Structure formats: C-alpha cells, structure tokens
Q: What sequence folds into this?
C-alpha cells in the first residue's frame, strides 16, 4: 500500500513591498477627472492581485488578524459590477490601495519579527553594543536658551526672544 506524499509547509515567497507601495501610491494619485475608466479598471485588477497576495502571506493566529482577514474578504466581495458608475469604481480602487498599504505595513512588521536576534537564533547572547542614550528633555533650543520649548507651528512675530 502506498501513502500519499507528506504535506510540507511551503515557505511563503517574499513579496516585493517596494513595488506594492509604489503601486498603491500611484493608484491614490489617480484623479477621477483626468483618468480613463480603462486605467482605473486595470489598476484595480492589479491592486486586487496584490491585496490577495499580501493577505495570503499574513498569519491568522490572533483575533485581530482574523478580523483583518475578514475585512479584506468583505472589501474584495464588494467589488463593483460591470455596469457600475465610474465614481464607484474609482472609490473602490482607492479603498483597495489603502488596504494594500495596511497589509504592507503588517507584512513588514511580521518580517521584522521573524529576523533572528543579534545574539543568535535563541537571542540569549550578550550584546557588546552600548544602548543609545535616551533623548534629553532639556538642551539648547533654536533661540539659544537652555530650557525646553514647545513646538511652535506658526511664528507670529519676527522679533526674537523666548
């Protein structure tokens, strides 16, 4: 009697986050009044592929992750039909681009967590690198004083002073 081959967990291929980021940025830059319907539909198709790929690469091991996956499924399920108004297709394309940005962020965070630590795979080694000093709350400000300043958004006067 022969047994079927054992199912091995295949490693998820690395996705190109830079290209996906450019794609989402380009999609969000498309304006409704200067873009053709064909361009919007082709961008939507490419974004849909990327959203599916990044969603498949993310784990579903927590309640939040399963909720995110459900949100992606709902977004993909509400894709506009063939007779939809151009505005609806454009709004959907923008929703896909924003979702892709979110998935890219989650994917990159997952990749950082998977990288081995400095001291080896177990992370038990002692680091010889000094820790960076905590930022100081005081110091020299832009006016030359030695006290902390709050960030000023608009300078109303041109005269100096604290």
A:
């Amino acid at each position: 009697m022969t047994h079927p081959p054992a199912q091995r967990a295949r490693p998820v291929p690395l996705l190109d986050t830079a290209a996906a980021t450019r794609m989402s940025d380009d999609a969000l830059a498309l304006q409704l009044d200067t873009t053709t319907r064909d361009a919007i539909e082709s961008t939507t198709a490419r974004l849909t592929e990327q959203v599916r790929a990044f969603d498949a690469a993310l784990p579903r091991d927590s309640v939040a992750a399963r909720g995110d996956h459900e949100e992606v499924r709902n977004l993909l399920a509400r894709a506009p039909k063939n007779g939809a108004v151009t505005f609806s297709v454009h709004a959907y394309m923008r929703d896909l681009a924003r979702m892709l940005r979110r998935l890219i962020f989650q994917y990159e965070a997952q990749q950082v967590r998977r990288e081995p630590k400095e001291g080896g795979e177990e992370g038990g080694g002692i680091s010889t690198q000094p820790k960076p000093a905590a930022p100081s709350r005081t110091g020299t400000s832009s006016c030359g004083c030695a006290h902390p300043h709050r960030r000023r958004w608009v300078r109303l006067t041109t005269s100096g002073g604290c």
In short: The first helix runs from residue 17 to 29. Residues 17-114 form one domain. The two ends are 88 Å apart (CA to CA).
